[in-house]
Description:
Blueprint: E1 3-10, E2 14-22, E3 27-36, E4 40-42, E5 45-47, H1 50-68, E6 72-78, E7 84-87, H2 108-115, H3 118-125, H4 134-144, H5 146-151, E8 154-157, H6 158-167, E9 171-173, H7 174-177, E10 183-184, E11 189-190, H8 192-197, E12 207-209, E13 214-217, H9 220-226, E14 232-234, H10 240-246, E15 258-263, E16 267-273, H11 280-284, E17 288-291, E18 297-303, H12 307-318, H13 325-334, H14 355-365, H15 374-400, E19 406-410, H16 417-427, E20 431-433, H17 438-450, H18 457-467, E21 471-473, H19 479-491
Parallel strand pairs: 1-6, 6-14, 9-12, 15-19, 19-20
Antiparallel strand pairs: 1-2, 2-3, 4-5, 7-8, 10-11, 13-14, 15-16, 16-18, 17-18, 20-21
Helix pairs in contact: 10-17, 12-15, 13-15, 15-16, 15-19
Amino acid sequence: MPNTYLAIDLGAESGRLVAGLWNGKTIRLEEIHRFPNGPVYLGDSLRWDVVRLWAEIQNGLSLAARKYGPGIVSVGADTWGVDYVLLDERDEMLGQPFAYRDARTNGMMEKAFRKVPRAKIFAQTGLQFMQFNTLFQLLAHKQGAPKMLERADALLLMPDFIHWALCGSRVVEFTNGTTTQCLHPLTRNWATGLLKQFGLPTRIFPKVMPPGTRLGVLRPGVAERTGLRKINVVAPPTHDTAAAVAGVPTAHTGKANWAYLSSGTWSLMGVEIQKASLSARTQALNLTNEGGLDGTYRLLKNIMGLWLVQQCKRAFDARGRKYDYGQLARMADRAPALRSIVNPDDARFLNPPDMPKAIQAFCRETRQPAPRTEGELVRCAYESLALKYREVLGWLEELTGNCIEVIHIVGGGSQSAILNQFTADACQRPVVAGPVEATAMGNLLVQVRASGELATLAEMREVIRKSSKVAVFKPGPAAAWEDAATRFAGLRRGN
Length: 495
């Protein structure tokens, strides 16, 4: 019977428990339990219902115990970055955690820069400036609820909170820690000097641990309620993109001739490097250095991603015009090519009340035809994303001095054949799409490695190549995309 490893994979729209069945050469994934997720308004603030999420996780663990029993070796969680839970000294949770799209951080970056210049923050964190980074969330917390922050004894990021619920550990895993804008990329520990400049309590920041760390065994109560043994709790790369990059099926680990694109609600496009890039040019381009497996860094750009399409669909549904994503893709394919384009990272697209209206307004303001039909709107979103990928690809080649020969697209967005082809066409690079389950595979295989059955990242990726299927998209004619890229550069607002 193969050994079984469990991945808790929590995204902004849904969560799930996935089993990885390891036979010593390949890994097979089985989804055990899926459940919805999403921020909820509590008063006027946007929060995560972590109590409900924890209940769903326990349900999934119970199902896993019944199906796989004593074959289960370990469990580990990955989630999105930046959001946190505060615990007091008695391990009581202080409030329901805020969701990163909450409006409390509006204007907080500008306030921060008046206290500590932008360049000095970047030098100590190496992180892309986004208003929802943990640093700015904490400054908003200090402004809005200072007494709560004073009471706090520990700050745990979302996957670290899940690990605490599983086994009682109070640590922050490195890859997710690097998303906070509170961690120094050279020391690989908290930027305590910066935190003190902002008057933030450094005592609440726990020890930083590398991915692959054994955190402990299941709490007795969790084991009893779920029917599991006291299995190991292992920290995978807890940031979902770090796990996804570990799950890229490249044969060129250690080389810089390939790029990854983790495609989902967000598009995270970058390269795997050995040392953080802290140059003035990196800062000017607003790229980020996030932690990866085995001490690597992910030099990447955080792009708005399929959020644009998801929110268009949501608006269509609300108007009674309900289509699945396959139907929307076919409608987009029939729409006029490269007629209207937007900058996906324009601030208006972060959380608009109506995404189609936001896209139309952008097009009117930039003197382009406003997309009218569902197909035109979705095509505009897809083409705009592909053009953004092209732009970022150029920045990555400039910063690394390397020619990127292939783009690996992983995650849910790798199933979008139309976007994959647009990406190949816009970037004039072959695109290798898949696996869809890169995040879960990266999570699970780090657990396998922690048990001693694999040794290197290259070995992990060889397993992924043997265990998954990919699709290759070759670039088509370039002329129309070259013209569109020139237009894109002219209309883009900011980075």
